[in-house]
Amino acid sequence: MLSPRNRRRSLRLALINAYRAQAQAYLVCESAARGQATLEQWQRALARWQEAQAWIVWLRRQQLAGL
Fold it and tell me: For the whole model, what pTM was predicted?
């Protein structure tokens, strides 16, 4: 089991990674809006963005709960 300090560190790193994934997916979605990406690329990016958003919400709740 992780110590509280290591758990907070792990949550923080996971949150940073989720924000990065969300930002990368957003850029692909923006490219698609300008016609620079295919529909399939846009769909995959949107799915990644949505998954990252779900992780961000879950991680924030964990942080607020102090777990």
Answer: 0.77
